[in-house]
Amino acid sequence: MKNRRSKLEIYLEVLKVIKEGTTKPTRIMYGANLSWKMVQGVLNSMVDQDLIEEIDRSKSRDKRTNKVYQITTKGVSVIRYFDRAKGLIEVDEPYFNPFEITKAS
């Protein structure tokens, strides 16, 4: 059974999906395996933190999508930082996730 993802893992997954070229909110939702409500909250938070930027295309010819997203330099730096951190940790447990946040009992 797989554990639930932490917020950090969700944010990193959304950043990676956008970095790979997925720009439309619905496609980001599917790529990161999130609900619509969750992806909207994550995208808004990431825009506020300057990890991604929102581009309004309401005046373009493509009327299907008003907003698209692209990763910023800061967002790329965050991905690099956490990928390097993961590479520094050696763990014998196959299902151990060093970024999982747990509450103390």
Fold and architecture overview:
With 105 residues, the protein is mainly α. The protein has a single domain, classed as Winged helix-like DNA-binding domain superfamily/Winged helix DNA-binding domain (Arc Repressor Mutant, subunit A, Orthogonal Bundle), CATH 1.10.10. 48% of the residues lie in helices and 10% in strands. It has four helices and two strands; from the N terminus they run H-H-H-E-E-H. Helix 1 crosses helix 2 and helix 1 packs across helix 4. The model has no long low-confidence stretch (mean pLDDT 86).
* CATH topology tier name: Arc Repressor Mutant, subunit A
Widest sheet, order of strands: 1-2
Strand content: 5-15%
By secondary-structure content and strand pairing, the structural class works out as mainly alpha
Q: Report the biggest beta sheet as strand number plus sense, adding barrel if it closes.
A: 2 strands, antiparallel
Large-scale geometry? elongated
Helix segment count?
Answer: 4
Number of domains: 1
The succession of helices and strands, N to C, reads HHHEEH
Poorly predicted ranges: none
On the 0 to 100 scale, the average pLDDT is: 86
How many beta-strand segments?
Answer: 2
Write down the Rg. 16 Å
Helix content: 40-55%
CATH superfamily: Winged helix-like DNA-binding domain superfamily/Winged helix DNA-binding domain
- Broad CATH class: Mainly Alpha
